[in-house]
Amino acid sequence: MVPLWMYLMVAAGLFSIGLYGVLARRNAIAILMSIELMLNAVNINLVAFWRYQAPLALNGQAFAAFVFVVAAAEAAVGLALIITIYRRRQSVIAEDVDLLKW
Amino acid sequence: MDITVESIVFLIFGVLTLGSALLVVTTRNLFHGALYLMASLFGVAGLFVLLAAPFLAGVQVVVYIGAIAILIIFAIMLTPQVTAMRSVRTAQWPVAVAVAVIFFALLVSVVTPLMDELGVDDFAADFTQENPPDVPADSLVRLGEQLVDPQQFMLPFEVASVLLMAALIGAVLLVWPEGTRSTPPGEAGDD
Amino acid sequence: MSLNEWIFIGLFFALSWILPATPIVLGKILAPRRPNPVKHQVYECGVETFGDTRVQFRAQYYIFALVFVLFDVELVFLFPWALAYNQLGLFALFEMTVFIFLLVVALVYTWRKGALTWA
To answer: Mean pLDDT across the stretch B17-35?
Structure first.
């Protein structure tokens, strides 16, 4: 089989790409999509470690399933917030929502 | 590592995942970004298949590509961009590149056996396993048992449903009802 | 699990790309090309389009998608639970009832709020 560290490399790359997206994109929806990429990187790691280091236990799979739920909830509320902000300010640019900045 | 069918398939899905992810964070058109996101998620589903987790691969396709990506596309259509001429990146994007690259380098230095071979450090754990034992055939049944087992995942399982309920109610509360302010001046409010 | 079991899925996947691609490519190659303004209209026979493509959609689409997502995610737990159902006792049934009940509460909330009525 493909050695474990190659999966970890893919996950690391995916996470770093998501990190770049979160830090560099202006659009709040694009930031949310980058967060989804990062969550997926975590999921790859969970499943890869489960497969290679503890295939007889099931904690890795169960954890990944819960990550799905959290991702869905996060996307639902996050996008609803973005839609609400858009209605009030006609903008989804993260920098425009700076009321709490000092 | 010798070249097997599996390594080729791994390469295809890995490149698909990472390539599409790069396009997600760089493309100007957000709608295209969402489609690339779908491609990237599909690549991850392929990796799950290779990792002998076909159930998670199916869930990935049904939940992520079928539901969450659709949600994102709906949100994109609900927020038409009047300010499309502005740059898609913030002013500090070079810093973001630096942070991402440094973080990636850090992760790679821990993960690859390369550093060990070079003798640079010895803090890296051993991630070179190649042939783990097979996954038992009843793995999914046991997952179902453990999910409702009070000793295992019963509490997270029920909390997950509370989380989903709260997420739906919260999201509906935010989005509904659409008041008069929902329509920007000069744009038709209807479909 | 060996990869051999996935060969058929791979075949079907390849086929699902080839089948629609073939007529499109064939059409590009074989079709005579004599364009005129009428042919380039979006609807050759139908109502003329007006306005911008990216109009504001109604937020209700989003709410329907939300309800769909909620019950789609439920599948993650429902499927392994159903597979293990024969080995599980009454308590597991009770747990799943609580799980689904909470989701139905959210659905009822959405419904009572009037967000599911297409006005």
So the answer is: 91
CATH of domain B1-82: 1.20.120.1200
| Residue C42 DSSP one-character state | S
The verdict on A68 touching C (C-beta cutoff 8 Å) is: yes
Residue A13, Cα to own-chain centre: how many angstroms? 13
DSSP structural state of residue C56: P
Distance in angstroms (rounded) separating the CA atoms of residues A40 and B108: 18
Tell me which residue range forms the domain holding C33: 3-112
Nearest-angstrom CA–CA distance, B184 and B170: 24
> What confidence tens digit (pLDDT) does each residue in B28-80 have?
888 899 999 999 999 999 999 988 888 999 999 999 999 999 999 988 888 87
Contacts of residue C69 in chain A, CB cutoff 8 Å? 72, 75-76
The closest alpha carbon to B67, from C105, A30, A76, belongs to A76
Question: Do A46 and A70 meet the contact criterion of CB atoms below 8 Å apart?
Answer: no
For residue A53 the two structure tokens come to 């280091």
Interface check B39 vs A, CB under 8 A: no
CATH number of the domain that residue C83 is part of: 1.20.58.1610
Report pTM: 0.85
Work out how many CB contacts closer than 8 A connect A with B.
253
Residue range A4-96 forms a domain whose CATH class is mainly alpha
Please list the pLDDT of chain A residue by residue as tens digits (102 residues). Answer: 788 889 999 999 999 999 999 999 888 899 999 999 999 999 999 999 999 888 888 888 889 999 999 999 999 999 999 988 888 887 788 877 877 877
Residue C21 domain-assigned (yes or no) = yes
Contact A2 B130 (CB under 8 A): yes
Burial bucket for residue B93 (CB in 10 Å: 0-12, 13-18, 19+)? middle
Q: What are phi and psi of B42, to 5 degrees?
A: -65, -40
In a domain, C119, yes or no: no
The residue extents of the domains of chain B are 1-82, 90-130, 138-178
By C-alpha distance, the chain C residue nearest B134 is C1
Residue C53 lies in a domain: yes
Chains touching A (3+ CB pairs < 8 Å)? B, C
B130 Cβ under 8 Å from any chain C Cβ: no
Counting the structural domains of chain C, the total is 1
**What are the domain boundaries of chain A?**
4-96
B85: tokens are 């001429």
